[in-house]
Design brief:
Number of domains: 1
Number of strands: 8
CATH topology: TIM Barrel
Low-confidence stretches: none
Pathway: Cofactor biosynthesis; thiamine diphosphate biosynthesis; thiamine phosphate from 4-amino-2-methyl-5-diphosphomethylpyrimidine and 4-methyl-5-(2-phosphoethyl)-thiazole: step 1/1
GO molecular function: magnesium ion binding; thiamine-phosphate diphosphorylase activity
Family: Belongs to the thiamine-phosphate synthase family.
Largest sheet: 8 strands, parallel, barrel
CATH architecture: Alpha-Beta Barrel
Order of helices and strands: EHEHEHEHEHEHEHEHH
GO cellular component, one term: cytoplasm
Keywords: Magnesium, Metal-binding, Thiamine biosynthesis, Transferase
Strand order of the largest sheet: 1-2-3-4-5-6-7-8
């Protein structure tokens, strides 16, 4: 089952991606995406292998951004691919039928394409401007999510849609009111002064939306 809260890794102020992942797991996160850009495949594999061991100890899912081969070799649970990355079909041929594959989308046309490609979930965004991603796609905002979620309903597309991109804790109720399945955060947890409280409060909003839906 796809968790409603995805933590996207970034280096911790006092350490690495692995430090930040351990902090997020200690705070209660159950779904981690290791997102490392501009490093060699060997370095990313090293991080991924260690991250997989850490997540396994917490019984959390680990998704690797961009690299199906590394995801498979490291013992991760899945891979997330951007619109300009390897095709979903080619990735599926590498990782097999049971592996989780997520795909990025920015428009309803992207969502339709992803659904046809057979992804397990969609990362739809960005919600707002974020400094963690280069070459950012057009900002969706709450109204953009509402429109695309409605289009999905009208076209019987039932894939879990995860809102992503610059989402802070204060945004969570507003984002979930658009009808998305869940959301992804990075800095909101990485830089929180009380990560346990932040994760607990986010899950409370996510579960409240589930109860009310």
């Amino acid at each position: 089952m796809i968790d409603k809260l995805h933590y996207i890794s970034q280096p911790a102020a006092d350490g690495s991606h692995l430090t930040a992942i351990k902090n997020a797991l200690d705070a209660g996160c159950k779904w981690i995406q290791l997102r490392i850009k501009d490093q060699s495949a060997d370095n990313i594999l090293s991080y991924a292998t260690e991250a997989a061991a850490i997540c396994s100890a917490y019984q959390a899912k680990l998704i690797i951004n961009d690299h199906p081969e590394i995801a498979l070799k490291s013992g991760a649970d899945g891979v997330h691919l951007g619109l300009d990355d390897m095709s979903i079909a080619d990735a599926r041929a590498i990782v097999g039928p049971e592996f989780i594959i997520g795909g990025t989308a920015n428009t309803f046309a992207d969502v339709t394409r992803r659904a046809a490609e057979g992804v397990d979930y969609i990362g739809l965004g960005p919600y707002r401007f974020t400094t963690t991603k280069k070459q950012l796609s057009p900002i969706l905002g709450a109204s953009g999510y509402e429109l695309i979620v409605q289009q999905c309903k009208e076209n019987n597309i039932g894939l879990p849609i995860i809102a992503i991109g610059g989402i802070e804790e204060v945004d969570v109720p507003h984002v979930m009111q658009t009808g998305v399945y869940g959301l992804a955060v990075s800095g909101a947890i990485t830089h929180s002064a009380d990560r346990v409280a932040t994760v607990r409060e986010i899950y409370q909003h996510l579960n409240a939306e589930t109860i009310n839906s």
